[in-house]
Design a protein that fits this description.
Elements lengths: L1 H4 L5 H6 L1 H10 L3 H20 L5 H4 L3 H17 L6 E3 L16 H12 L6 E2 L4 E2 L4 H11 L3 E5 L2 H13 L3 E5 L5 E2 L3 E2 H8 L2 E5 L7 H7 L4 E7 L15 H8 L6 E7 L17 H6 L4 E5 L10 E5 L1 H9 L1 H5 L4 H16 L1 H4 L3 H7 L2 H18 L3 E13 L2 E16 L4 H9 L4 E3 L1 E3 L2 E5 L8 H10 L2
Parallel strand pairs: 1-15, 5-8, 5-9, 9-10, 10-11
Antiparallel strand pairs: 2-3, 4-12, 6-7, 11-12, 13-14, 14-17, 16-17
Length: about 475
């Protein structure tokens, strides 16, 4: 083995090889970059041979050939887009791992225009002087929510952190034990509160909290009662929670204590009228008497990742002036996408239904069935290696939203004559664009609730390429 390893070519020898210049030209690299790739591959090849992960007979006849081949593969992978397009065949509309909400065409066009040009991000065109990015969409948020004032930060966790830091630091915040939720990535309300400097006061029990629990916890040190909407889990059975309206009435007797509700997902469209979930409208919560609400931009709203805060003007003004507001601010492209998303809500039902998130959630199962049947017919006529059948199933909303809600849908359940479901799903994820499916009863299942009509051709091509 040592004798063979001594035959591994030195980097300076490989730099003289004609293949070195060919790779530089083909992949638009400079000599230093390509040299680093070669050094890494030489080291990797040596380690693999020593660990007997690679047979010496496979590479010993021509080490240079093996190295240049491996380097080309690594360069090709390195130059691919890290953030890649994916076809979501899971049926989960707000799939956190797949980027949650798809933006509307109008939002995408506005983002492109804004990114390609200078903009009035912080400039008053009429007055010819510095402006504030907070002003750009505040009027749209006010109209959409019915609040006195509003602002936006980079996500809802940031909104919670800002509110607690600015309005309750070193003071007490009362929260029901049943609402001390954990969101994705092990981020907990209690941990965010601790980082903010606010002091958590837990009331009630895991399954039951009464109004008197809040009343008894109020003290001179209380800055805020915080209600956390449990949008990412549902508790059933022997339970009791205090509704927003009840807490608002209690707050009328304690004007010096703020009432803040973290809505999590936050809905501007009433999905309940379609029989889907029981999410409260942001407007309804504000009208109930809360001082502040916060919610996400990229969940039920159907826009970009953002944390939206709405409520009393005096409180919003304080938040805007806080030092963290700059730390947590959003960029021009997020503002552009959010602006067009909010305009759709204000334009009426037809425009709202064009938002991909809303459209996919309320989409009738009958329409999905037609689309699934069409795909099955195309796949069967294009390949003899697949067996496909139409099945009734259910879709999930996802994104920690509407827990337990299952929406009727139709799927294509697909089996390959030679590949297992796991093997086929791996191949599908390696196509371009990648296809993410779900596996059920040893079949690869594609839920067409989250498949756009424009993706049908690419979906079929992906299956044919995975034969």
């Amino acid at each position: 083995m040592k004798q063979y390893l001594r035959q591994l070519p030195a980097v300076h020898e490989l730099q003289k090889d004609p293949r070195f210049d060919s790779l530089k030209t083909a992949y638009n690299l400079n000599g230093a970059q390509l040299t680093k790739f070669l050094q890494r591959e030489i080291s990797s090849l040596r380690q693999r041979l020593l660990a007997k992960e690679l047979a010496i007979e496979e590479v010993a006849p021509d080490f240079a050939r093996q190295l240049f081949r491996s380097v080309e593969v690594q360069i090709s992978l390195w130059q691919e887009d890290r953030l890649a397009r994916v076809i979501n065949g899971t049926g989960t509309v707000l799939h956190t791992n797949l980027g949650r909400s798809r933006l509307s065409d109008a939002a995408i066009e506005h983002v492109v225009r804004t990114a390609a040009n200078y903009s009035n991000l912080e400039y008053h065109l009429m007055e010819g002087k510095r402006g504030s990015r907070h002003d750009i969409i505040e009027d749209l948020l006010i109209e959409a929510t019915g609040a006195e004032a509003a602002m936006v930060v980079n996500n809802n966790a940031a909104a919670v952190f800002l509110i607690l830091s600015a309005l309750a630091k070193q003071r007490e915040v009362i929260v029901s034990r049943g609402q001390l939720v954990e969101i994705g990535g092990s981020f907990r309300v209690s941990s965010i509160m601790e980082e903010s400097g606010a002091r958590l006061v837990e009331v009630g029990t895991t399954n039951k909290t009464h109004l008197f629990d809040y009343e008894q916890a109020l003290s001179e040190e209380t800055a805020m009662i915080m209600k956390v909407h449990t949008s990412n889990f549902k508790m059933i059975g022997f339970t009791k929670t205090v509704e927003t309206e009840e807490l608002a009435k209690l707050m009328e007797k304690h004007k010096d204590v703020l009432f803040y509700e973290d809505l999590g997902s936050g809905a501007l469209y009433d999905f309940k009228k379609h029989g889907i979930g029981d999410e409260p409208l942001v407007r309804e919560v504000i009208e109930s008497g809360v001082d502040l609400v916060s919610f996400s931009g990229d969940k039920l709203l159907g826009g970009p990742q953002a944390g939206l805060i709405a409520g009393k003007k005096e409180l919003i003004d304080r938040l805007k002036k806080h030092q963290l507001a700059r730390v947590l601010r959003i960029d021009k492209m997020t503002l552009a996408a959010l602006e067009e998303t909010l305009k759709s809500y204000l334009a009426g039902p037809e425009k709202i239904a064009e938002l991909p998130t809303v459209r996919d959630i309320i989409r009738p199962a009958a329409d999905i069935k037609i689309q699934a049947q069409s795909f099955i017919s195309s796949l069967q006529s294009s390949s003899g290696k697949y067996h496909s059948e139409l099945q009734e199933s259910t879709s999930q909303i996802g994104g920690g939203t509407m827990p337990g809600v299952e929406i009727p849908t139709f799927i294509a359940a697909i089996a390959h004559e030679n590949l297992s479901a796991d093997q086929l799903s791996i191949r599908l994820r390696q196509t371009k664009p990648a296809i993410v499916s779900r596996i059920q009863d040893e079949q690869v299942c594609i839920d067409f609730r989250t498949i756009d009509c424009s993706e049908m051709e690419a979906l079929l091509a992906g299956f044919l390429a995975s034969e």
